[in-house]
Fold each of these.
Amino acid sequence: MINVIRNGEQLVDFDESLLMKTRPPLGAAEDFNLSSEQVSKIFGIDENQFTPIPAQLVVPVLKGRWRKKGVYHTRGWLYILEPREWFPVVRHGDSVIASQFKSPQSTNRKDISEARFNIGCKASIEFKLGGSYYGTSTGVTQSNNISFEYSSTSLTEGLLRKNGVAGDTLVEELLLYPVLRCKATRKQRIDYVVNTKTKDLEWGDGSSQPEYRERFRIPSSRLGRIVQMQFHPVPVRGSEHEGMARLLPIPRIVSNGEIEVVTLLSRGDWQDWYIYEAEFQECSETIDLAASRNNAAFRPTSCWATFLDDNRKGKLNDEAEPSQDIIDNLEGGRLSDDTNCEKENSLEDGNQGRTYCALEPLE
């Protein structure tokens, strides 16, 4: 494919209608011990409404640093990924007993840092234009505050009264964050240096020589709309300076339906592009992509729910006032182990060290 692009004169483009699509299923909230069915019920998610997305994605995972004054070094990997499932990350929000519960006064919470949910993600991804390849963009993970919209299944004061929930029942705010879990099948080593003093870009032995560059130069006039998929600025962890370079992975569908990629590299202020020669290598890795801004599955969602088990019907104690030990534990955000909670139904929140009974919305 490199020779086709390098030696040809035709327009270089990509027909995404040839790229297969997939509809990844909703996975389980493993770190919260909730099955995908429980997640669907609690947050009102219908995975049948998920939008199909490209069956293969090209995502850079890069880091950068100043090597010396005026010289910036970027390195990492360009991955070819296969989306496998929408992985729901669930975290605790607020907790309150039913007698003190007040319905949300707005539809959104806006004071929660995204870093609380995407810490294990290598990059972020956004789907627009109905899951189109050309509507897909990737970047570094963010730590800004994001908005969680309350689900239509969220409890209200009226629902609590209607269902006769005892005033000492704990009502939990749960926060749901979308992550796209992918399998990496191939990866290409990315390693280049931008020199701000000489206005140069180097990416391998001889790349600074005019004769080398001429052999691998691709005039911008040969690039079709695929140029819309360039990374500029290049998404690099640890830097705000990657407007100095541009990266353009050009995919092509091969006979088995998979894509192969030729990567082009350029400075931000150069008109033409240059083929980046490093070979792709086989790999088998799990890569998680933060997807808080996607329009293909579900968005960050908040829900108020009670914890119930079959014996207690949602109450801490059906027959007696709660003990002082239970009250103390509730105030500390923890349900005591001696409240008849079935251990096999309990949930662990590893971030906060709390134990709760299986969470279900009220009918």
Amino acid sequence: MSTLKFSADVKRRWDALTLYAESMDLTEYGLGILHPGCCIAILPEDGNPESDLGDDDLWYGVYLKTGADEDDNLYMKIVWFYTPDQAVSQLSSRKDRKLREIEHRSINALPPDELILSNHGDVIEQLSINDFARIVHRGLAAGEEALSYRKLLCFGRPAKLINATQRNVRINLGVMITADEN
């Protein structure tokens, strides 16, 4: 596929895009069917789709829905997974110092290889998808090959780090995370 493309203009105009069915057929790209709640690996801005990228080279998100602009360019609304370091960096810009300290301690207590699901959403070009990703809740039998998460970082006033139970994810993101690869 291609490198990650964010479009601030498209993000602002998301509601005006033509929305398609929630599922997206990416079989022509060798990926299969994308459904809301699917975990995806995303090429970073400087990622080369032709190179061998490892888990640490990719970004991860959850697919929510697809839209198209007037030129039929496809965009996806996603929410991000963060590493603990990325989450701390995101929270360091918050004005409430006490909240930052509490959240930093909670996040720093997580294993460094554990991802944190967030409600931080973006709109990206469909061509930014590298592949499906196997990301499972840490409470489930993940196996060695799967990335895992167990916390949900909700940005808002105040930001909070909560358990990523199915109920909390559904309430805060509107989807159920599916760990199945296509």
